[in-house]
């Protein structure tokens, strides 16, 4: 039985014609646009790797770039203060640094630690506002990594590897869980206005994962995304027709798999949708003065980091999966890299971030978002117990502090410990891969199930098996 094409159907159609080919050749290509959309939605649902119902839906990573000192923040060491100016006692063992000389002396801390909250956790006076929320925070005092060089350590913090080219945890999470809002990117990075970091953009990127899982890296300043406003002389309908025409041309080239082209098609679609929704996200004029004050917006030194923390909360409200808010960027003393003067550096960096971070925690909690939002604080390593240049501290990867809050984390507790001078993690040491494992777990993902085939092997974020930090979940 012969099948005649319906009226209006392309005469090139035959029973052997594929659905995609037919739709591309008919209805001026709009059928293929719908098909591509359906295929992407199908692919998105098929890449969901959630194995169980996690407590968290989104992650905000407060990245303190350069390496904040555990000794001046969340890990008090009275013995270090008593040994100030002396050589490290032999019983603490050896340690290799990048810049500290072999004859360096121990350096006591200039901060004061005080117990806070019902939990009585000690927090330094650099973070008086964050300390008010310590009962919601689980402090990890026994973190460690493999390297002391900024770039390699930053790669390891984000991707689990010390070299570039591997996907960041943000890309892994978006690949595993998909999007919660089709009008905004699922993975957003908000850099510090002082510039790029040692490792640069590669540490945030998607690596070998499909290009659609790369982050949107916002601009610094008051206009994080340019050209969101459609020119007044162009109507919304005209803009829609333009995007559809571009999509028609792109769709004609999709017979063979093309990761980069597929990502470009998605970027056009996302850009069109963002013009309707993103301006409201980035416009803080509808926030109350009380909320702006909560984050320290409108005054120095908290305005910039406070504005970005508030944007992170607004991103979470709109379903953004993974948001990075960077403190520290560019060369020299503009990050938490206190080689020359730990007092000046950490006093300044903490004064920029303490109030905004506390405001974020309070705002999330009062809006009922903290339970579903995992907040992570930390850098690529800590600082050395020994002095560098008499007043600074060198890079230190053998033991340092991070913390987590929200997203099902049991706050008000300290996990792990470094030795009495803060040299190395000695009690319940946790590697970066254990941090990654715990983040995935809170999102409902088993580390062993979130894999991607690459160069003949199934790759995963945690590389080898990470440990879940059970004490805090």
Spell out the blueprint of helices and strands.
Layout: H1 19-25, H2 30-46, E1 58-64, H3 78-82, E2 113-116, E3 121-124, H4 128-131, E4 137-144, H5 150-159, H6 169-177, E5 187-190, E6 216-217, H7 236-251, H8 259-282, H9 289-295, H10 303-317, E7 322-327, H11 342-366, E8 373-378, E9 382-388, E10 392-396, E11 400-405, E12 413-415, E13 417-418, E14 425-427, E15 430-431, H12 432-442, E16 451-454, E17 457-460
Parallel strand pairs: 1-7, 1-8, 4-12, 4-15, 5-6, 5-7
Antiparallel strand pairs: 2-3, 4-11, 8-11, 9-10, 13-14, 16-17
Helix pairs in contact: 1-2, 2-7, 7-8, 10-11
Description:
There is one protein chain. By secondary structure, this protein is of the alpha/beta class. The protein has one domain: Alkaline Phosphatase, subunit A (3-Layer(aba) Sandwich). Helix content is 32%, strand content 16%. It has 12 helices and 17 strands. Strands 1, 4, 5, 6, 7, 8, 11, 12 and 15 form a 9-stranded mixed β-sheet that branches. A two-stranded antiparallel ribbon has the order 2-3. Helix 7 (236-251) runs antiparallel to helix 8. The N and C termini lie far apart (65 Å). The model is unreliable at 1-47 (pLDDT under 50).
What brief labels describe this structure?
single chain; 473 residues; alpha/beta; Alkaline Phosphatase, subunit A; nine-stranded mixed sheet; two-stranded antiparallel ribbon; 12 helices; globular; disordered N terminus
């Amino acid at each position: 039985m012969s099948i005649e094409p319906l009226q209006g159907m392309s005469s090139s159609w035959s029973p052997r014609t594929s659905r995609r080919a037919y739709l591309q050749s008919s209805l001026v290509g709009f059928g293929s646009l719908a098909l591509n959309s359906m295929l992407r939605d199908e692919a998105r649902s098929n890449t969901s790797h959630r194995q169980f119902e996690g407590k968290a839906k989104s992650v905000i990573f407060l990245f303190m770039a350069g390496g904040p000192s555990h000794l001046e923040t969340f890990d008090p060491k009275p013995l270090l203060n008593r040994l100030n100016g002396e050589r490290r006692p032999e019983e603490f063992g050896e340690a290799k640094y990048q810049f500290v000389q072999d004859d360096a002396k121990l350096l006591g801390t200039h901060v004061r630690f005080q117990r806070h909250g019902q939990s009585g956790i000690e927090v330094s006076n650099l973070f008086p506002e964050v300390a008010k929320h310590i009962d919601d925070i689980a402090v990890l005092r026994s973190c460690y990594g493999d390297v002391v060089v900024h770039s390699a350590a930053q790669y390891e913090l984000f991707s689990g590897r010390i070299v570039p080219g591997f996907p960041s945890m943000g890309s892994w999470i978006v690949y595993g869980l998909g999007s919660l809002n089709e009008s905004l990117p699922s993975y957003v990075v908000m850099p510090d206005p002082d510039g790029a970091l040692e490792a640069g953009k590669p540490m945030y990127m998607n690596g070998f994962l499909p290009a659609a899982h790369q982050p949107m890296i916002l601009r610094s300043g008051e206009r994080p995304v340019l050209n969101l406003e459609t020119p007044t002389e162009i109507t919304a309908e005209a803009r829609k027709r333009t995007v559809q025409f571009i999509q028609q041309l792109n769709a004609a080239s999709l017979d063979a798999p093309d990761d980069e082209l597929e990502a470009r098609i998605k970027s056009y679609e996302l850009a069109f949708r963002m013009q309707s929704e993103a301006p409201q996200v980035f416009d803080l004029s509808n926030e109350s003065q009380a909320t702006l004050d909560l984050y320290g917006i409108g005054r120095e030194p908290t305005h910039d980091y406070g504005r970005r923390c508030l944007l992170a909360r607004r991103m979470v409200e709109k379903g953004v999966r993974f948001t990075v808010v960077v403190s520290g960027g560019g060369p020299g003393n503009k990050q938490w890299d206190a080689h020359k003067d730990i007092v000046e550096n950490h006093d300044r960096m903490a004064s920029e971030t303490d109030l905004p971070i506390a405001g974020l925690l309070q705002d999330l909690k009062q809006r009922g978002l903290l339970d579903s939002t995992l907040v992570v604080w930390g850098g690529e390593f800590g600082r050395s117990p020994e002095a560098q240049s008499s007043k600074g501290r060198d890079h230190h990867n053998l033991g340092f502090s991070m913390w987590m809050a929200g997203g099902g984390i049991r706050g008000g507790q300290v996990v792990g410990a470094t030795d009495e001078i803060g040299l190395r993690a000695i009690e319940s040491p946790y590697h970066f891969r254990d941090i990654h494992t715990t983040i995935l777990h809170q999102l409902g993902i088993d580390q062993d199930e979130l894999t991607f085939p690459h160069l003949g092997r199934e790759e995963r974020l945690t590389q080898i098996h990470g440990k879940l930090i059970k004490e805090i979940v």
